[in-house]
Design goal:
globular; 328 residues; alpha/beta; 11 strands; D-Maltodextrin-Binding Protein, domain 2; six-stranded mixed beta sheet; three-stranded antiparallel beta sheet
Length: 328
């Protein structure tokens, strides 16, 4: 009888171990340069939960927020391409030096609301997927940051306040436009922003209300000016070699999780701005939601040359902008 009990316990242990190994076949590290509470961070958590659910627990995604794996935002494209990480969140605006298509969603004043966002992504996604295949990765989901504005030490209520302002830009589009409008703009990765603020190298930052309040920008910059500059799109991609090694049912699970994450993240935009402003005001941030029209007018004017140059350098992909404008 004793031998039977021991054998049963052993068999039970083996079965449990086998079940555990079957339940979790893949563990993937996923870097994100932004915080867990940022728009991209929330999307990442949603994606991982949905992947776990739809894969029956066979895939576990381990998050590494705030650049804790050591990669800067601009590094993620090559990190996934080379297999340094199996998947990553990409802020596309960092990749303008690779291909102009990555700058599309951050073109100035291109999108203003959720309807614009959905219209753009519908025509953008297939072109973007093809481009990313060239970097050995598969596009599985998209996210966004709400419209970018100006975080600053002193209020930026009109064009005069922008003149000579040492402001962080996040891509070529914002760099050239703000420089053209008279600011002393500096293109800077997100990971370098806090040190630059601490040292006084910059006095303002172009980014969303969402990223600013969730990253503690209000500790340095107690003013935010709404200009609805851009709604930058981010994406999640998986290394294609990793993808090709997955069974079809897990590929399908990831596709479904990615599509659902995209849908939820885009839908969140309609309420996100108001929630961000409430949180900012509660922390003492002065939100300027109706600056002098001369500020936006000058930025729109300064952006036109960049948009036209983008059309030229984008080549065949410039058709995406035409298709979007037609849908809009």
């Amino acid at each position: 009888m004793k031998n039977f009990v021991l054998s049963a316990a052993l068999i039970g242990g083996m079965a449990a171990a086998t079940s555990a190994s079957i339940a979790q076949e893949y563990t993937w590290d996923m870097p994100d340069v932004f915080s867990r509470t940022s728009s991209d961070g929330v999307a990442d958590v949603t994606f991982a939960e949905l992947v776990a659910e739809k894969s029956g627990g066979r895939i576990k995604i381990v998050h590494h927020f705030d650049g804790s794996l050591g990669y800067k935002g601009v590094d993620h494209l090559e990190a996934v391409q080379d297999g340094g990480v199996p998947l990553a969140r990409h802020a596309l605006s960092y990749y303008g030096g690779y291909d102009p298509i990555f700058l599309l969603s951050s073109l100035p004043f291109l999108m203003q609301n959720e309807a614009d966002l959905n219209a753009l992504y519908e025509v953008y996604e297939p072109h973007l997927a093809i481009t990313l295949e060239g970097y050995n990765q598969v596009l599985v989901s998209a996210g966004i940051f709400p419209p970018s504005g100006i975080w600053s030490r002193k209020p930026v209520e009109d064009l005069a306040a922008l003149q000579g302002l040492k402001i962080r830009a996040f891509d070529l589009s914002s760099l050239e436009t703000f420089s053209g409008a008279g600011a002393a703009a500096i293109n800077m990765n997100w990971g370098d922003v806090m040190p630059a603020l601490s040292s006084g190298a910059i006095d303002a930052v172009v980014t969303s209300a969402d990223l600013g309040i969730n990253s503690g920008l209000n500790d340095y910059l107690p003013s935010f000016t709404e200009i609805n500059w851009a709604i930058p799109i981010s994406v999640v991609t998986i290394n294609k070699d990793v993808w090709d090694g997955l069974p079809e049912d897990l590929q399908q699970a990831i596709k479904e999780a990615g599509a659902e994450t995209t849908k939820r993240t885009f839908a969140r935009l309609s309420v996100q701005v108001g929630e961000n402003y409430d949180a900012m005001r509660a922390k003492g941030v002065a939100v300027i939601d109706k600056p002098n029209p001369d500020l936006r007018e000058k930025l729109v004017e300064s952006a036109k040359p960049f948009i036209e140059e983008w059309r030229k350098t984008a080549g065949e992909n410039a058709v995406i902008l035409d298709e979007y404008n037609a849908k809009r």
